[in-house]
């Protein structure tokens, strides 16, 4: 195909539309959305019906890094510190020691079943050692999978924070493959530098970003998400420039910002949620275009062996040893082991050996691609089944959220009360604007005849309405009671 600007826009928009429509129906057939995106990219590529020849790993890596910025940042913004705090140590153990153990155990296995050197084997193990944030966030949230206790925040924290560790290991072992004379212990300073500077950068830029967002006065609300995008890229690039881990920095920065009071926070969150989905689609389409399916076929046998070992042995080793000193039921450890989804991130990391030009680069890339596909296909389609089988999923009746639950989830720091309007209330048949409501309290929703409405200043209060009121502190409700002359529901 002759790729002009017009053709690129046409093909790109068509691929996006096809991906969105395919994703809408994919779960009816039990197929993960991300796998559909990948398949569409492969069908559009040089070996598929689209015939688009795309063989530029450097550009694919660039798109991958940009996409991961948005995906990790969006995941961080959605992370509720109150739910993460109780399982913070477990999450850190999984995202550091767990990743290292997975990489080493898989690397040793690869060394014994292939003609790879030990460093090449450990490089392959490192590339696929982390769970994929895009895959975990997408599959858990799109399935609305409700899990007992703190399982879900543990899985999401691990997947959002373990990419930096896998990235450092990938770069470290790639360096050892290129420079065979270098000592294994020479990578330890690099590891410490990346993680420490990454953490410091994330905290520092998070604090600075909050100050900038809340103190700069922009004329248009729509500019605030643009400002946050600029701050996100600044955090990543500046941290990377000084030798820190940019991925770790943006995730920590996003978690900090997501748990602070920000101007136009709801607008920012909605924008990043949409952008994260866009970047997931673009990333998987790009990686689907980059791969040549005909080149994967010779490696399917060895790829399947490695994939099975990763799922059934290496991942459980990483999980069980890293959680050895934490109190957790055996069934939950098994479930965490099963949710070791590999997705786009390993494929992006597999472009680094391609660009470095090492001997086994193409073989590594094709094996990694096959591992990611099998992981999404096998593990991604069975999360609900395993949750029920292991008894870690909540029953259907327990996982349905009311609008009030959703409202509290969006405003975790707010105080909330439900107030019933009786016939003797002053507020009956009054417009909200005429009530003289306290400035630090709002009527967020009204439950009227078993349906929820979002009011405005002109909305009239009716008898038997239940008002869902949010306030910034408990004492404010005394003023609210006086204003409404009512009682708690």
Automatic annotation (TrEMBL):
* Domain of life of the organism encoding this protein: Bacteria
Any single GO CC term annotated in Swiss-Prot or TrEMBL for this entry: plasma membrane
The record's Pfam families line, in alphabetical order, gives: Na_H_Exchanger, TrkA_C
Gene3D superfamilies for the chain: 1.20.1530.20, Regulator of K+ conductance, C-terminal domain
Which InterPro entries does the record associate with it?
Cation/H_exchanger_TM, Na+/solute_symporter_sf, RCK_C, RCK_C_sf
Name its cellular compartments. Answer: Cell membrane
The Gene Ontology biological process terms listed for this entry are: potassium ion transport; proton transmembrane transport
Keyword Signal among record annotations: no
GO terms of molecular function = antiporter activity; monoatomic cation transmembrane transporter activity
Sorted alphabetically, which PROSITE patterns does this protein's record hold?
RCK_C
Which residue numbers delimit the RCK C-terminal domain?
A: 404-486
Transmembrane segment boundaries: 32-52, 59-77, 92-114, 121-140, 190-213, 225-254, 275-296, 302-326, 338-358, 364-390
Q: How does it sit in the membrane?
A: Multi-pass membrane protein
Keywords attached to this entry: Antiport, Cell membrane, Ion transport, Membrane, Potassium, Potassium transport, Transmembrane, Transmembrane helix, Transport
Is the keyword Cell membrane in the record?
Answer: yes
Protein name, as recorded: K+/H+ antiporter
Organism per entry? Cochleicola gelatinilyticus
């Amino acid at each position: 195909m002759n790729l002009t600007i017009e053709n690129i826009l046409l093909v790109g928009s068509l691929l996006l539309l096809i991906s969105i429509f395919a994703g809408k129906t994919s779960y009816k057939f039990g197929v993960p959305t991300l796998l559909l995106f990948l398949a569409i990219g492969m069908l559009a590529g040089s070996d598929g019906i689209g015939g688009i020849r795309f063989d530029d790993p450097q550009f694919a890596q660039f798109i991958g890094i940009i996409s991961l910025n948005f995906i990790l940042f969006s995941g961080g913004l959605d992370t509720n510190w109150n739910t993460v705090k109780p399982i913070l140590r477990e999450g850190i153990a999984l995202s550091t020691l767990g990743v290292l153990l997975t990489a080493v155990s898989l690397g040793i296995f690869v060394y014994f079943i292939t003609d790879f050197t030990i460093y090449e084997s450990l490089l392959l193990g490192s590339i696929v050692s982390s769970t994929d944030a895009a895959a975990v966030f997408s599959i858990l949230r799109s399935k609305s999978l409700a899990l007992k206790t703190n399982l879900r925040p543990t899985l999401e924290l691990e997947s959002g924070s373990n990419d930096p560790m896998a990235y450092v290991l990938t770069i470290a072992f790639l360096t050892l493959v290129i420079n065979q004379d270098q000592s294994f212990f020479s990578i330890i300073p690099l590891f410490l530098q990346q993680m420490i500077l990454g953490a410091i950068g994330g905290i520092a830029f998070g604090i600075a970003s909050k100050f900038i967002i809340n103190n700069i006065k922009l004329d248009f609300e729509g500019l605030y998400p643009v400002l946050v995008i600029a701050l996100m890229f600044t955090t990543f690039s500046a941290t990377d420039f000084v030798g820190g881990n940019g991925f770790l920095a943006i995730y920590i920065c996003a978690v900090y910002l997501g748990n602070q009071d920000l101007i136009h926070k709801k607008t920012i969150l909605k924008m990043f949620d949409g952008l994260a989905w866009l970047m997931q689609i673009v990333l998987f389409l790009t990686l689907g275009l980059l791969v040549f399916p005909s080149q994967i076929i010779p490696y399917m046998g060895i790829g399947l062996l490695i994939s099975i070992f990763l799922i059934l042995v290496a991942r459980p080793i990483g999980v069980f040893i890293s959680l050895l000193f934490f109190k957790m039921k055996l069934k939950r450890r098994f479930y965490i082991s099963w949710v070791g989804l590999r997705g786009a991130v390993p494929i992006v990391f597999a472009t680094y050996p391609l660009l470095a030009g090492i001997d086994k680069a193409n073989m590594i890339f094709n094996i990694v691609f096959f591992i990611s596909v099998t992981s999404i296909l096998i593990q991604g389609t069975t999360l609900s089944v395993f949750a029920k089988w292991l008894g870690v999923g909540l029953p259907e009746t327990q996982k349905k959220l009311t609008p009030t639950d959703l409202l509290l989830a969006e405003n975790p720091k707010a105080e909330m009360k439900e107030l019933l309007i009786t016939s003797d209330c002053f507020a009956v048949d009054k417009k909200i604007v005429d009530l003289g409501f306290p400035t630090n309290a709002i009527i967020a929703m009204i439950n009227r005849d078993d349906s929820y409405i979002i009011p405005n200043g002109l909305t009239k209060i009716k008898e038997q309405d239940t008002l869902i009121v949010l306030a910034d502190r408990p004492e404010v409700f005394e003023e609210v009671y006086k204003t409404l002359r009512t009682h708690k529901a």
